[in-house]
Design a protein that fits this description.
By secondary structure, the protein is α/β, with parallel strands linked by helices. The protein is built from 8 helices and 7 strands; from the N terminus they run E-H-E-H-E-H-E-H-E-H-E-H-E-H-H. Helix 3 (62-76) packs parallel to helix 4 (103-131) and helix 7 (232-242) packs across helix 8.
Length: 260
């Protein structure tokens, strides 16, 4: 897919990767870029910067995503590319088990990291299928392919997000629908937390949101399912699949190195 002349929606777009995607899509010549975020003022600021449309949206609420799709189509026409980018991360409790994150945060992670993708697809797919054309871009994480040390809720929901994206691609590829997932490791956004070096996920360096946007434009042009701003993730995933026990032992060593 080439972005020029396309109608694009990006959620979680008031900052970080989402804002960088909006700016890059604008530079690529998108006909319209809709900037959606729970932070309505932030969404409007980004939209004013690029001449887009800002819409306050809570992606954990299905009716909000239905409204986002309807308002976009009313103002801009059919959606060509929907970027389900919003996400949250919660750490395990200090010295706690992998099950130590609170039920409230587990539910928030599930609602935003998984169900928001489901709600978006449910809202936008009927029109795309009718037109036999459309693209779904879901921001996931390398944690969805590998894992995230210290955040079981993040790792688990990101694995589920990969599974749903695979189902979209398998079920709707013959309907003319393309699907891609963005799976970076450490990105210089507030979600990275207090790790100056990126923590365990920063072993291959920290990229900027703009770097991710560059990878996305290239990945969309190639219509690749996996978009990997950190190319080493491909190798790590291959190693994981080829020898799960060895990979788990390596992840334990990595965890110990950051615990000391």
């Amino acid at each position: 897919m080439q972005i020029k002349d396309k109608v694009v929606v990006v959620t979680g777009a008031a900052s970080g990767i989402g804002a960088a995607l909006c700016r890059r899509f604008h530079r690529e010549g998108a006909r319209a870029v809709v900037v959606a975020d729970l932070n309505g003022d932030g969404a409007r600021l980004v939209s004013q910067e690029i001449g887009g449309i800002g819409i306050q949206t809570d992606v954990a609420v299905e009716s909000d995503l239905i409204r986002l799709v309807q308002e976009t189509e009313n103002q801009c026409g059919p959606i060509d590319l929907f970027c389900s980018n919003a996400g949250v991360s919660y750490r395990d409790e200090p010295d706690g088990t992998a099950a130590s994150c609170s039920n409230e945060n587990w539910q928030k992670a599930w609602d935003i990291n998984v169900m928001a993708h489901v709600y978006a697809a449910r809202a936008v797919l009927p029109g795309m299928i009718a037109r036999k054309n459309g693209y779904l871009l879901n921001t996931v994480s390398a944690a969805g392919l590998l894992n995230q040390i210290g955040s079981a809720s993040y790792s688990t929901t990101k694995h589920a997000a990969i599974g749903f994206a695979e189902s979209l691609a398998i079920t709707h590829g013959d309907d003319g629908i393309k699907v891609s997932v963005i799976c970076p490791q450490a990105v210089a956004t507030p979600m990275l937390g207090n790790f100056e070096d990126g923590g365990p996920q920063g072993v291959d360096g920290i990229v900027t949101p703009e770097d991710v946007a560059d990878s996305v434009v290239a990945g969309l042009a190639a219509e690749s399912f996996l978009i990997l701003p950190h190319e080493k993730v491909r190798l790590y995933t291959q190693r994981k699949i080829s020898d799960y026990d060895r990979w788990l032992n390596g992840m334990r060593r990595l965890r110990r190195s950051f615990a000391n």
